[in-house]
Amino acid sequence: QVQVVESGGGLVQTGGSLRLSCTASGLTFADLNMGWFRQAPGKEREGVSCISWSGRTYYADYVKGRFTISRDNAKSTLYLQMDSLNPEDTAMYYCAAGLPCPTSTPRGGYWGQGTEVTVSS
């Protein structure tokens, strides 16, 4: 049974930082592209960042230079270091396994339940 579990969300002030984690089990983590997506209230889900099985990374323009994605295959864990957060980053953040990196269609693959990030002004 595949399980994808995000953690690390919370409330932070503008300019602050958070580190999200995503642990996946029941799949061969090292063989899969991994990605972070987010969905703000009333908006569509959008891609944030992804990392291929080979370590190639991609960032959406709106997070480039502020967020850093990484993976630890030994721990089957994906990370997203988020710095210089602003209120526009407020959203539910989701981890997904097995999607193309990057992708404009965040469907398919395996998804977690999300972790909420709120950035106060």
Question: What does this 3D model show about the protein?
Answer:
This protein has 121 residues and is mostly beta strands. Helix content is 0%, strand content 49%. It has strands at residues 3-7, 10-13, 18-25, 34-39, 46-51, 57-59, 67-72, 77-82, 91-97, 110-111, 115-120. Strands 2, 4, 5, 6, 9, 10 and 11 form a seven-stranded mixed beta sheet that branches. Strands 1-3-8-7 form a four-stranded antiparallel beta sheet, with no helix packed on it. The chain is globular, with a radius of gyration of 13 Å. The model has no long low-confidence stretch (mean pLDDT 97).
Record field, number of beta strands: 11
Tell me the Rg in angstroms: 13 Å
Order of helices and strands: EEEEEEEEEEE
Mean pLDDT: 97
Concise account of the structure shown:
This protein is mainly β and 121 residues long. The chain is built from no helices and eleven strands. Helices cover 0% and strands 49% of the residues.
Protein topology:
Elements: E1 3-7, E2 10-13, E3 18-25, E4 34-39, E5 46-51, E6 57-59, E7 67-72, E8 77-82, E9 91-97, E10 110-111, E11 115-120
Parallel strand pairs: 2-11
Antiparallel strand pairs: 1-3, 3-8, 4-5, 4-9, 5-6, 7-8, 9-10, 9-11
Give keywords.
single chain, 121 residues, mainly beta, 7-stranded mixed β-sheet, 4-stranded antiparallel β-sheet, globular
